Amino acid sequence: MNEEATLRIISADSHVVEPHDLWTTRLSDGPWAHLAPNMQGDANSGYTFHVDGLPPFPVGLAGAAGRPSESLDTKGEMRAGGYDVEARLVDMDADGIEAEVLYPSVGMHVAMTPDPEYQLACMRAYNDWLIEFCDGGQGRLAGLALIPAVDVATSVKEVERTHAAGLRGALVPAVPATGHYAEERFDPLWAALAERHWPVSFHVLTGGGNGDPTLGTRIPITGLMSPIHHMQATLAILIFSGIFDRHPELRVVSAEHDAGWVAHFGYRYDQMFERHHNWLGAGIKLDRNPSEYLMSNCWYTFQKDPIAVETRERVGTSQLLWASDYPHSDSTWPHSRQVIERDFKGVPHTDLAAIVGGNAATLYGLD
Prior knowledge:
The structure is a single chain. With about 375 residues, the protein is of the alpha/beta class. The protein has a single domain, classed as Metal-dependent hydrolases (TIM Barrel, Alpha-Beta Barrel), CATH 3.20.20.140. The chain has 14 helices and eleven strands. The model has no long low-confidence stretch (mean pLDDT about 90). Helix 5 (about 150-165) runs parallel beside helix 6 (about 185-195). A hairpin with a 7-residue loop joins strand 2 and strand 3.
């Protein structure tokens, strides 16, 4: 039997595009009804989601999978697979995808709302909808719960609630509303996640990155690396604050930051920590070298990153997770198998099968 034809492909980072009435319906009977996130616009002017206290969120690109580059903009119709589960399964079959791990689209924007009670109400409404969406996915959809990072006791309760309801992991904002994740007050959250072997994701564009990444030039394209820099800082915080030593079963996912940088990142931190820990890391004691945490407690998703494939042994083949990013504008849909064939050319089948499916199946319990 042809190994490529039977290759099990799981996207470890795909998205829903929330239906226009998700929050207006589910918050209609509560105190936030008048502030419920809502969609405005049309196919000609472009659709935008409006969340109280935040700039409008354009959703056109979030559902633009399959559109040619020259036609990409914030206008146009969104793919129905973003919000309709039957259409989604059809698109997965067309792309040869067995299963998907689901992140939000507008929900990532919701994570940046300043009012903690409003944020929690919006997140709970999203999580309830996602549970129902995944229930219709014939076992092929693994949803990640949106978890607030304001009041840790509330965070833990939402972890407990959504884990019991069948979701497969958590997504937290890139930075908490106040303070930082190295504070001991967050330990109950890490403990709750580790106890359940529930992966927690830090996804690109969920906040953080304060300051001007263009260094004053105002040339937008020069800031494209800033999300990766922010993810690197987050991983360093988790390592050097001792979070992984206190919670050795904690599983962290770097989502949509690519992975070709991880090999050098680990090498440099090993080298620099060994040389400079006496004065830069006074009082810091680690059970292992920095790179060892990156190779045991952390996973990394990517769509088109042949450098990650080339450096896989320096990172750990078991830590790499291929993704299609459906239905966003950077998605490999509907050519995912061709992209995999191109980027994994010459890779042994065992490594290929692990990165494009097996690792995600193990991490999220998709067996």
